């Protein structure tokens, strides 16, 4: 008999010298990253925001779409978009980053969506806060997890499923968690979860369930695939691991000068140059960014702009550099108020999650 196992790939690590395959390229072409020059925008234009879609973008009619609130609640609710839009409206500027960002730079490389450093964006999300809705439904005292289900369906490592992710009740009830129907002031685009998605500020992307159709309260821990099998930090296949949750600190450099088409190495003219970029953390505010222009031999402090978007949005940093002719490797390193900082050695795990190893930008300073 034919089974889904025949079409579904197991998780695996690439061989030491194995190149990116056509299957990984197929994923990379669907799930694009932010062009790094777009780090110039404080609010990422919707079309430049990164994308990650496990299965297909579902075909949903906003007019007929509803979301159910059920499970361990006293009064189950069914809400349509008009009901949600009639509720108090809140906007948060939120840095969203895929938990797999940095995966393709790991050695050995976990075979999956091959992100380098570009799986990030900083958009404005508008919607109805989740907590008052769940309280209206009458949350049971013994509630443990809240499961969010999307309208998309697929197979992953042999497991057929709707995309589902659960949050512990305390995290789901945080006031910043939104049922978002707008991105940057316009209705959600199909690829970003239209007509409705969850936004969990501070958490890696997998928690922000798109095409949301159901919210269900459980009195037992959720054991679904995306929580129990995927999105865990494991050292090997047998390791039960720990869940991937909040975003580790990271700074990115907006690549200076102009690029070589193929290598994307930067060409820069000699002289004073203001390097800049963005820094964020889902744990605590970023308190410092340091820059190296010599591949990590020495680090110097960058200046941080005033925060522009609240506690869940990235912050711009700047660094004055006197660029002399030669070849350089530039990096920036963020530290947050919890004391977390970016490693200079890869933080390896089998799924390739939360790799916030510092970025390396090759620059050639060449006189005209
Ligand atoms: N229903 C559903 N929600 C989803 C996903 C998905 O495949 N299906 N992908 C998740 C992952 S892994 C990420 S990183 C973010 C990406 O959100 P974006 O595409 O709007 O940037 O959506 C999350 N929400
Ligand atoms: Mo992701």
Listing every helix as H and every strand as E from the N terminus to the C terminus, the arrangement reads: HEEHEEHEEHEEEEHEEEEEEEEEEEE
Count of individual helical segments? 5
Shape: globular
Strand order within the widest sheet? 14-15-22-21-17-18
CATH architecture of the largest domain, please? Alpha-Beta Complex
- Structural class from helices and strands? mainly beta
Give me the CATH fold name of the largest domain: Sulfite Oxidase, Chain A, domain 2
Report the mean per-residue pLDDT as an integer.
97
C-alpha end-to-end distance = 67 Å
Beta-strand segment tally: 22
Estimate nothing, just give the exact number of structural domains: 2
**What helical percentage do the residues reach?**
under 10%
CATH top level class name of the largest domain = Alpha Beta
Could you tell me the strand content as a percent range? 25-35%
Uncertain parts: none
CATH-defined superfamily of the largest domain: Oxidoreductase, molybdopterin-binding domain
Unique ligands: ligand MTE, molybdenum atom
Largest beta-sheet details: 6 strands, mixed
């Amino acid at each position: 008999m034919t089974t889904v196992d025949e079409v579904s790939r197991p998780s695996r690590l690439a061989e030491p010298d194995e190149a990116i395959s056509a299957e990984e390229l197929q994923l990379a072409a669907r799930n694009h990253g932010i062009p790094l020059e777009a780090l110039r925008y404080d609010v990422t234009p919707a079309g430049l925001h990164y994308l990650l879609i496990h299965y297909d973008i579902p075909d949903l009619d906003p007019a007929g779409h509803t979301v159910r609130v059920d499970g361990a609640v006293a009064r189950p609710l069914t809400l349509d978009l008009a009901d949600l839009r009639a509720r108090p409206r809140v906007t948060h500027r939120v840095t969203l980053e895929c938990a797999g960002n940095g995966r393709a730079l790991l050695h050995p490389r976990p075979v999956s969506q091959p992100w380098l450093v570009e799986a990030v964006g900083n958009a404005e999300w508008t919607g109805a806060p989740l907590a008052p809705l769940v309280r209206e439904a009458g949350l049971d005292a013994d509630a443990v997890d809240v499961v969010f289900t999307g309208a998309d369906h697929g197979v992953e490592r042999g497991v057929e499923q709707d995309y589902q992710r659960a949050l512990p009740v305390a995290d789901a009830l945080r006031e910043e968690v939104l049922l978002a129907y707008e991105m940057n002031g316009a209705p959600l685009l199909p690829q970003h979860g239209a007509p409705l998605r969850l936004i969990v500020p501070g958490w890696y992307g997998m928690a922000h369930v798109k095409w949301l159709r159901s919210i269900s309260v459980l009195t037992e821990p959720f054991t679904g695939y995306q929580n129990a099998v995927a999105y865990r930090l494991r050292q090997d296949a047998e390791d039960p691991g720990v869940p991937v949750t909040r975003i580790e600190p990271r700074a990115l450099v907006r690549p200076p000068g102009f690029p070589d088409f193929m290598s994307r190495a930067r060409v820069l003219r000699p002289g004073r140059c203001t390097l800049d970029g963005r820094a964020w953390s889902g744990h605590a505010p970023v308190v410092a960014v340091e820059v190296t222009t010599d591949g990590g031999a020495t680090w110097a402090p960058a200046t941080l702009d005033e925060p522009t978007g609240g506690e869940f949005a990235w912050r711009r940093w700047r660094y004055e550099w006197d660029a002399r002719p030669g070849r350089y490797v530039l990096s920036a390193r963020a530290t947050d108020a919890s004391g977390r900082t970016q490693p200079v050695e890869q933080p390896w795990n089998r799924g390739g999650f939360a790799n916030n190893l510092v970025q390396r930008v090759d620059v050639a300073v060449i006189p005209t």
